[in-house]
Amino acid sequence: MTTHLVLVGAGHAHLHLLKHATALRRAGYRITLVAPTRFWYSGMAARLLSGAPRDACSLDIAVLSARHGIEHVTAPFVALDVHTQHVFLADGHHIAFDVLSLNVGSDVVPPIPTGAIVPAWGDARYWHVKPIERLDALRQHVLDAAQQHRALHMVVVGGGPSGVEMAANLAGLSQRLGAPNDIQLVTRHSRLLPNAPDAAARWASRQLSRLSVDWHPSVALDGNTGWLDLLDVSPDDIVLATGLRPAYCVADLPLALDDNGIRIKTTLQSEQHATIFAVGDCASLIDHSLPKRGIEGVRQGPVLLHNLIALQNGTSLRDYHPPATALAIVDMHDKGLALYGEHWRGGRLALRLKRYIDTRFLRRYR
């Protein structure tokens, strides 16, 4: 008799399970994947915006599922019943599971607090850095405006890696198109990249200046101050890169939660349910405060695979130990900023290294 394993979401950790589906079936699992048709690689978000082909930045989940003999369901996941062990989908169907793994990702934290008075910002379009595929539409929007000889006034909100990447690559794309777009970056902090060394943050600031990005630091993003009044003109587009939080669907799940997501033990199991796992940005490792970054999902993948098989076989589960530090490379259009703890290096070599790492990751699953 087989055990039905339902995977919700096709994030970094679940990609590892797809690749090793044979080992899971050998352990006695029948596998169903509930996920969209494409996996968009967050590490290449800036590259997608700056002009890379869609296929170079994503994976076809339908093709991968068929290749590895996995049933693939594309209807969005909307709810979970832990008592009857069913997941519910947006099309009205539901799926029974014996073991469940959640890898549903994250969404952008809104810059305006709940209850704040939101100022009137005219007809500005809003773009979130997640889901990643929206950046393809943003790129097309910039291309269309350039073809119509129409200058855009664009504001990026957020001074972390995503905000810096968005501002730099919007500016780079505009320059490549010969479009006189106005790119401005608004940040809450007085410096860019708050978790990076000071010298690295100053280097990033110089690169943005070189790309003609106008940076506004120390802005109170609270809505009540009408912070966009500091701009010379009303923006046509506002790109929100204000940090990440667990996907919106997580808040309604009947599981132990905290502000960072589904509370999980070091075995990646839900704090309350041994047959429910959670990984990636939607999960919150108890007694740890981890940033929402793809490297966690990548490193959790092998541990998740081992523990699913161990659960089935009645053997010991493995603990996940997050890395104390990890390499991160900020894509600044034609240069990169490599960060590792207190060490950093900026330049074209860093960007080439990022291109190599990202391409190798996707090639692993093609």
UniProtKB/TrEMBL annotation:
The keyword Iron-sulfur does not apply. Keywords: FAD, Flavoprotein, Oxidoreductase. Residues 4-289 form the FAD/NAD(P)-binding domain. Pfam families: Pyr_redox_2. Transmembrane segments: none annotated. The keyword Ligase does not apply. One of its GO terms (molecular function) is NAD(P)H dehydrogenase (quinone) activity. One of its GO terms (biological process) is aerobic electron transport chain. SUPFAM superfamilies: FAD/NAD(P)-binding domain (SSF51905). Its cofactor is FAD. This is NADH dehydrogenase, FAD-containing subunit. It comes from Chromohalobacter canadensis.
